[in-house]
Amino acid sequence: MDSILITPLTERPSLTSRLYEMTETWPAFIPQDLVAGALLSRVAEDFPEYCVVATDGDRVVARGLSVPFDAGLDGREEMPDKGWDQVLVWAYRDRHLGNAPTTASALEITVDTEYLGRGLSYRMLTALRDGARRQGHDALLAPVRPTAKHLEPRVPMADYIRRRREDGLPADPWLRVHVKSGGSVEKVATASMTVSGSLAQWRQWTGLPFDSDGDIDVPGALVPVHCDTAHDRAVYVEPNVWIRHGVRPSTT
Questions:
Q1: How much is the pLDDT for 2?
Q2: What's the Cα-to-Cα distance from 79 to each of 83, 223, 225, rounded to whole Å?
Q3: CA 121 → CA 62, 109, 111, 148, distances in Å?
Q4: Where are the chain's structural domains?
């Protein structure tokens, strides 16, 4: 019998401080995104009704984070090109100003490495969709990071997401999870996350020399990192893929 329990974080608030007690596989440079560094650690505490947690006994084995925002304000849209960074900034601006949200966007689903391959990501995605439904939304958006794209960093994302298996489903495993769960691939978020650092920082994050100008392939990066030795700077602009999940708003 499956011993994994998935619940909204509002039902188990004591786990908020333990959401990061997992073995993860995120590349070391990803948390260096300035928006992530400033805001991500606060999401579970500030938006618990949009977050979910999975446990196996007393062990936290997965987390799912999402945020609400108002897509109807001037200059905004549901699926901005700046993707992940933009919706997180909008969510906190709306919270500060008291703006009523019109939609919700997933930010991440992270599963402990020991629990990968058990279908837990499907269940966490369903739980996030249920959370959006309970808050009265008719959709859960997601700026998705395709899990196999890092193997082909020179392939444009627009070309990558068009690849299909013989059964018509996306070739990428994580995109496939979303589509099999009812999501629709909408568009590329061309600048979803941005990581800028000195060459010394990039050497520390990646173990690579960063001693030549131009585009550098970095393990775990979805596209090359641009290196400028004259200015002692390297910049990574990550594209993601916008996916829309329709949900039925709660009537209770």
A1: 81
A2: 7, 21, 24
A3: 8, 7, 7, 15
A4: 4-188+241-246
Residues in the chain: 252
49 Cβ neighbours under 8 A, 6+ residues apart = 8, 9, 10, 131, 134, 135
Instruction: Compute the C-alpha angle 84/185/42, nearest 5°.
Output: 20
- The three-state DSSP-derived secondary structure of 77-136 is CCCCCCHHHHHHHHHHHHHHHCCCCCEEEEEEEEECHHHCCCCHHHHHHHHHHHHHHHCC
Q: Per-residue pLDDT averaged across 152-177, rounded?
A: 98
What is the C-alpha separation between 2 and 119, in angstroms, rounded? Answer: 11
* DSSP run (H or E) holding 228: strand 225-228
196, 233 Cβ separation under 8 angstroms: yes
State the average pLDDT for the chain: 96
Does the domain at 4-188+241-246 match CATH 3.30.2320.30? Answer given as no
Q: What DSSP string runs through 169-180?
A: SBSSHHHHHHHH
Q: What's the pTM value of the predicted model, to 2 decimals?
A: 0.95
* Separation of CA 144 from chain center: 6
Of the candidates 175, 165, 154, the one whose C-alpha atom is nearest the C-alpha of residue 222 is 154
Q: What is the pLDDT of residues 228-239, one digit of tens each?
A: 999 999 999 999
DSSP character at residue 183 = -
Q: Rounded to 10 degrees, what is the CA torsion of 45, 47, 49, 52?
A: -70
Q: CA torsion 167→170→171→177, rounded to 10°?
A: -100
